[in-house]
Q: What sequence folds into this?
């Protein structure tokens, strides 16, 4: 808008010369690209996910104190619950638990 509202002729260049706008457009491109990459990563990775089904397990609370927790998701087509349970029980864990998705309005079991 400087070329129309308040035209200044500096160095013999016309007021509407695009060369003076290149630096700010480059900086805006970098800024918008950084925001797009950051929010795109959050969207594709589904971050943050505040209501993951594993959070409803009573044993999950102890994982940050003195234990660790392994979660195997069942979204894969080749996932077999009985084979996975047998594999995990073969490793002699202290506990194996099946946690299912809680539908909105239902109570966690």
A:
């Amino acid at each position: 808008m400087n070329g129309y509202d308040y035209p200044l002729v500096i160095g013999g260049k016309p007021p509407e010369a695009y060369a003076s706008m290149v630096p700010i457009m480059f900086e805006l491109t970098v800024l918008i690209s950084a925001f797009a990459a950051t929010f795109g990563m959050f969207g594709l990775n589904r971050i943050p996910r505040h209501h993951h089904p594993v959070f409803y397990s009573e044993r999950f609370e102890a994982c940050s104190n003195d234990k660790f927790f392994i979660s195997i998701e069942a979204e894969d087509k080749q996932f077999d619950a009985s084979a996975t349970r047998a594999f995990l029980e073969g490793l002699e864990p202290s506990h194996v638990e099946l946690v299912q998705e809680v539908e909105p309005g239902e109570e966690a079991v």
About this structure: The radius of gyration is 28 Å. The helical segments are 2-5, 22-44, 81-90.
